[in-house]
Amino acid sequence: MAVTLLCAGELPDGEGTRLRQRLTVLRAKHAADRTLLARSDEAGTDVLAQTPLARDVVTAAHSVASASASTPLLAPALDAALMDEALSETLEAAAPDRFGIAHDKGIAYVLEQGALFPDIPDMPDGMTFELLRSRDAPIALKGERGGVAVVTAPNWSASAEAVGVVARSASLAQLCASAIEKTVSRPDGELSPEVVWDALGDGARAASALRSAGYLKSAVLTFRGRGRVIGPIEGDRLLRFGVSSWR
After folding, report:
1. What is the superkingdom listed in this entry's lineage (predicted)?
2. Residues in CB range of 148: below 8 A, 6 or more apart
């Protein structure tokens, strides 16, 4: 599981290496469950996971699906849950003012009150890190921990182009993002600005429902240069999302 450690220099000597080793162990321990969850995502069927962590992901997915009327993806959420677990273990051994674990398009992080992440030019996914650094977005600006996830769709997909979510954990952010992404249907025919805004409407309503239910703190949705913002995010700072007009 290839990960990027944000502000690893603030950890005690050797803690970054130990964390990477622990993630490798966690990945191996949950490999069978990840295969089951990936098959469930493809087939659209329910699954009986073996490990407690994977079962927790499935339980959370059911709650997110109920609130959003959309079924989230399980396998990516398990990957994010492994980061959440590793972060929890790291915080038992150290107390960094700022630290994050990034994998694919998700980040599990802790950020103490008043701390900010510096610019990291070599981040594998700039959209997710940009969402994390958006001044008003991270819930950890109040001294809490959380997670960020971005789901992007291929051009042929009949869904939103990008959905970003800030939540209290990386796994929950991933579940919410994938659920919201499925609710945006790309319309046929001419894509006027009004049609594009209407297409984003269902996704915005799903995101608002998830926020009202306490599953996410904030979210962004984009489609054809337009973007919707739910919660405390300043869209104009999200340059990598390619949006010229926010609502």
Report:
1. Bacteria
2. 106, 107, 109, 128, 131, 132, 137, 138, 164, 165, 166, 167, 170, 173
Of 215, 218, 214, 210, residue with least CA distance to 246 = 218
Domains of the chain, start order: 4-246 (3.10.520)
Q: CA-CA distance, 195 to 119, in Å (whole number)?
A: 36
Mean pLDDT (the chain) is: 87
Q: What is the pLDDT of residues 165-211, one digit of tens each?
A: 999 999 999 999 999 998 887 777 777 888 888 889 999 999 999 99
DSSP string, 134-180: STT--GGGGS-EEEEEEEE--TTSSS-SEEEEEESSHHHHHHHHHHH
Task: Give the full edge-to-edge strand order of the sheet including 145-152.
Answer: 4-6, 98-103, 106-111, 145-152, 162-167, 218-223, 226-230, 245-246
Partners of residue 243 on adjacent β-strands? none
3-class SS at 208?
A: helix
Mind listing the pLDDT tens digit for each residue in 64-120? 999 999 999 999 999 999 999 999 999 888 888 889 999 989 999 988 877 788 888
| Residue 140 vs residue 220, higher pLDDT | 220
